[in-house]
Amino acid sequence: MHNKKSRFYYLLIISGLFFLLGMIPPSKIGIGIGMIFGIIWFLSIKKNNWQIKKNKFTISQIITFIIAEGLFFRFLYKNWMSAVSIQFLCDRLTINKNFFVLFMSLIITFGSSFVILMGIKTLTEKLINKEEKEVHNQLNWKLILYLLVIAVIGITLCSRTSPLYRFNDSFDSHIYFTIGRGMTEGKVLYRDLLDQKGPYIYFIHALASLIDNRTFFGIYLIQIVFFFITLIFGAKIIKIFIKEDRCIYYGMPIFIAIALSSFAYWYGNNSEEYCWPSLMFGIYVLVKSLNYDRLPTNKEYFWIGVTSGFVLWLKFTFLAFYIGWYCVPLILYIKNKEGRKFTESILSILGGVVVVSAPVIIYFFVNNALYDLWTSYFYNNLFVYKAVSLKEYRYGMIEQIFDSLWEQGNLNPKASFLLILSFIWLYFQVNKKTFFSLLIAFFALCAVVMGIGVTYLYYYSIFSVFMIFAVIPIYMIIDFMIGKKFIKEILILIGCIVLMFTQSRNTSFILRDKNSYPQIKFAETMAQSENPTLLNYNMLDAGFYTASGIVPNTKYFCRINMPIQEQFDVQNDIVDNGKVEFIVTKEFYEFPLYDLIEEGDHDNGEGNIHYYLYQLKKESF
User: Fold this and answer.
1) pLDDT-derived band of residue 477, with 50, 70 and 90 as boundaries?
2) What pTM does this model have?
3) Residues 520, 600: contact at Cβ < 8 Å?
4) What contacts 249, CB < 8 A, 6 or more positions away?
5) Rg (alpha carbons) of the chain, rounded to whole number
6) Which of 306, 318, 337, 488 could pair covalently with 482 via S-S, beta carbons 3.0-4.6 A apart?
7) Is the CB of residue 72 less than 8 Å from the CB of residue 24?
8) pLDDT tens digits, one per residue of 491-504
9) Beta carbons within 8 Å of 510's beta carbon, 6+ residues apart
């Protein structure tokens, strides 16, 4: 009885302070800070001890909870005072509006504090037992099948490679696919067809073109496989901390919905998402070892070498993640004077890198194109690409990183919230070695993604792998609110599907009329020629090669985002001497040897583009 009374007094005192704190002017920033404080309070239970002892709360818990709920009270009060419906209700009931709003705001604030406090007590008594050292990371076949289903749903809805999209109008995707198709017909990457991404992105698209060389169906299937592997390792990470499968059933659809519907997931089929499985695996190995006071085994280091080697040959800047990843193990080797183990770890990693690098080296060696590999992938990206456009910052890279993170955070608020939630949870629930390893890996990745050269909007999607830890506190909240009924899992999944459908930048293009794409119309025109040849003049590959099935006959088949003068000289020579039958541009030109035969408009979501199709004059044949 005494405990019930003391609990009541605690709640009464805290709710009274909520009312006083309600004098704080509300704002979006204030409410956001309040939410973060509330999360900190929620997660600030003593590590390795998931029990709330009676009603003893720390000062920091009480203060942060008061701030969060105080802002909530003020938010309710202000919005209800200005609501027309509340005024109408008070007029009909003939009661004072000020009194009614104040009373209801207090009741809801008091009630929410009671529910949250009691909910925390219930949750913390039944969920995680951090004293157990056993790692519960095994996935049963039902869970694996579920992850496959939601991977298919996510990619099908949100990637423009999906069959739901009549045509993929992504520039980068078509560059990859055009080069991939060319490779299957004997063209050599970089030497015969130029772009600056890593070899494996083109190997993947070459494989996809063998499935279907006129659509992206093959890429759609490969995307599902990569995303499914990402979810597998994400689920294994979650199972390290919570053995109950419901955590994955509840939380993973939310992770998927926010990752794939974010502003950064533009078009789909970017290099970033092919690196997700490798980085997620790296996080899994790190957490599995450091959080249980050991270092990775040589076998784990070997597979880190394999996955990092894949990243090396896909987008080498992301190797910064592994530099941050290895910092804490390196420090521990030095501290414990374990030189032999350090050497073994390096050799194991290098062994994995060699295995995954061998196909790349062999391909370019056999085709006598090792110099083209070095120049196009490494030299151009290191010394040419970064000079395209750089902002001037007073404090250099550090200021640019945080400026870019702030900008991306505003564009991707839901993803940013999960990132913050993940690191808050990690701070309170894992040991310092694990937390700082992940934090260093995150900022090392930030340094190369946000701090060097041009930052495109889709770059932010690489950080999605760090959002996986947010699934755990989300599950804790959902499990308390809705319980264990299976129907609730279905409702959560449906809700996430609705979220993806309504929030993704891509879904407005689902089932769009195929004939509305100039690529399709121009392809029908070019098909009337017996052996058509084509050049994308002074523009990125917008899909005209894919739609027409034409394989380029020039290295500089389109303009790439790199200031290489040779590409402009070669394209001008082709046009001036009539070396191709058709030319596509997005600006009007008066070419002496070509006639303008067709025009078309297209809005890919970034603005309207007007395309022009030219054909070589008959007397020039």
Assistant:
1) confident
2) 0.79
3) no
4) 143, 146, 489, 492
5) 28
6) 488
7) no
8) 888 889 999 999 89
9) 157, 164, 165
